[in-house]
Amino acid sequence: LKVRDLRRELNELGLNTEGRVDRESLLELLEVQGLEAIQRGSQQPAPEVKPEEKQQKQQQQTQQKKGTQQQQKKQNPFKDSKPPPVAAEPEAGGAEAKIYLLRAVSDHGFKTTARVITIELEVGCAPLRFVVDTACYHSIMKEAVVKNLFQARFDGQPEWAREEAPGSGIQQAVISNAFLADGKISCGEVTIATIDQELPVPAGCCGILGLDFLTLFDWDFDIKNEKAHIATAPKERKAPLPFNVSGMIPVPLLKIRTPSQNELYACQVKLSVPGQNLEDPAVKFVQAFPDLASSNTLCNKIAAKGMRKITKATSGKGFGPGMPEKKRKFVDVKTEEISAVLGIGNGPEGYSVREGKVLAGDVEAFQVLRLTEWPTAILGADILVRERLVFSFRLNRMWLPATESPLEAKEVVDV
Prior knowledge:
Elements: H1 3-12, H2 23-42, H3 51-75, E1 94-103, E2 115-123, E3 126-132, E4 140-142, H4 143-147, E5 152-154, H5 159-164, E6 171-180, E7 185-195, E8 207-209, H6 211-214, E9 217-222, E10 227-232, E11 248-252, E12 254-257, E13 263-272, E14 285-290, E15 298-299, H7 301-304, E16 312-318, E17 331-347, E18 350-360, H8 364-369, E19 376-379, H9 381-384, E20 388-392, E21 397-401
Parallel strand pairs: 3-8, 4-7, 14-19, 15-18
Antiparallel strand pairs: 1-2, 1-10, 2-3, 2-6, 4-8, 5-6, 6-7, 9-10, 9-20, 11-21, 12-13, 13-14, 13-17, 15-19, 16-17, 17-18, 20-21
Helix pairs in contact: 1-2
């Protein structure tokens, strides 16, 4: 059966398939709950009904189903999503690469001392530096840089841009013979979107690497030593992780589609304030997006309702992580800066504890994603880029240390 047919069969059995986007997760649901659902449906034989009664009952069921679907749509904005387009077809291999921690550019108008992870993609003899962005669907770079690359060519407007951003001027470029890790990992041709505007990236960076590129690899970021171990994702999706993550907390990731049709990876996080026990029943999990390119950790107003002791009011302007328009629409927003304790992850091994500041408010990032009415947070570089961080999108996991250890003060690089 195809995935959509399998999902339909499970729904007819009365099983909830929401949030399960691939065959493996659907088969797991069938294995765990399928027999019980089949037995439940076969316990009582269907009574004989007259044709007119049968037709009337079918009409009522159809109306009830529509009403239930509409209600579920309002209650939960997260939907199933299709796999992202592939940006490259890298050769199998693994290597260690240098990463560069650069001062983040705040795309919300707030001051920040956070550092974002940047990595070089080698094209010919020219190393191109990109920001690693785990909350952006498409990789993108500055059009002016592509025009100066002998190894790059423009290839019209990408299909997704015609649907999602018509008239934006976004073009598709194809970069030939690109490499990671000083030439140790061949990426082959890399397809990337381009715009003729500035991007909110540090000086010296030409763009961002999004999920269409990042999902092709497993990543082990060693923040303290400023290096990364990169391994091409194997064809066997459930192959073992090539890194040693003993002692780290695995954080389950779920690929979802937001009401604005952005496809992102989300995890669960508890938000509390210092002195409040994360095990307190009043502290609930909320949905959160790991965003290594975000300068700040944010939550919307509804997610901040359970947090107490709001300490400092501020205000700022922001725009969402989606594709920039010709004219960015900045919206004044009111936020509260909250000292917070975060419990990241809801797997069997528990959660990873982090302390930091959270900016609470319906900034434009949440407006763009249409998530102002659903408890949501964005985990920025200020929380995640601290010590060690491992991503395996094929395994739907992120690994973090159980608790953070103090790092020596380190000067933030600006070039």
